[in-house]
């Protein structure tokens, strides 16, 4: 607890999982859900990813946004429309329940689409996500958002961010053992 709360480890590790911080421009932006709350409302991580996707769209260059992640993708779609993204830009992938399935189902959805693709997800999730998409045959450019790294700036939020990173590390090992990354 003390290590996670009072050292810069959480921020450092979030950066390591994110990889190189760039702002790639892809014709297609793939946004992964981070789960939902009871009642189907988007969890905080999902909302954060959506808001960064809106920013990316507003910056220009994005022609299509794929929202991947079970039934929560419809909530993501409504949020982004409310934030000014045209409905015809948004495509939902609503069958997946994991990052592995996000990659497989989005690859099927975009089969034959030769546009450049950027993958938007949280910093601590990027390592596993980008590898899962590449394993599924999709060349994606990573576009991490500062999730754990932002929470690490306030000591009260470092512990939850540390737990997210620890859980993600377990998932990385699981995906590696399964051959999914």
Give the structural class: alpha/beta
SSE string, helices as H and strands as E: HHEHEHEHEHEHH
How much β-strand is present in the residues?
Answer: 5-15%
Helix content: 40-55%
Cα distance spanning the termini: 30 Å
Low-pLDDT runs: none
Shape: globular
Oligomer: single chain
**Rg, please?**
16 Å
Largest beta sheet: strand ordering: 3-2-1-4-5
Number of helices: 8
* Tally of strands: 5
Describe the structure.
The structure is a single chain. This protein has 181 residues and is of the alpha/beta class. 52% of the residues lie in helices and 14% in strands. The chain contains 8 helices and 5 strands, in the order H-H-E-H-E-H-E-H-E-H-E-H-H. A 5-stranded parallel beta sheet has the order 3-2-1-4-5, with helices on both faces. Helix 2 (9-18) packs parallel to helix 8 (155-178) and helix 6 (123-135) runs parallel beside helix 8. The protein is globular. It starts with a helix and ends with a helix. The model has no long low-confidence stretch (mean pLDDT 89).
């Amino acid at each position: 607890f003390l290590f996670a709360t009072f050292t810069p480890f959480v921020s450092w590790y979030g950066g390591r999982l994110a990889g190189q911080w760039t702002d790639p421009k892809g014709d297609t932006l793939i946004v992964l859900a981070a789960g939902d709350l009871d009642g189907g409302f988007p969890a905080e991580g999902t909302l954060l990813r959506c808001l960064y996707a809106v920013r990316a769209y507003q910056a220009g260059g994005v022609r299509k946004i794929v929202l991947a992640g079970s039934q929560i993708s419809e909530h993501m779609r409504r949020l982004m429309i409310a934030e000014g993204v045209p409905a015809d830009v948004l495509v939902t992938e609503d069958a997946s329940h994991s990052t592995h399935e996000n990659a497989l189902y989005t690859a099927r959805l975009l089969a034959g689409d030769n546009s450049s693709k950027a993958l938007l997800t949280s910093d601590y999730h990027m390592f596993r996500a980008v590898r899962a998409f590449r394993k599924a045959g999709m060349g994606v450019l990573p576009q991490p958002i500062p999730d754990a790294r932002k929470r690490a700036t306030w000591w009260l939020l470092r512990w939850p961010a540390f737990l997210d990173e620890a859980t993600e590390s377990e998932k990385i090992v699981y995906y590696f053992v399964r051959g999914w990354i």
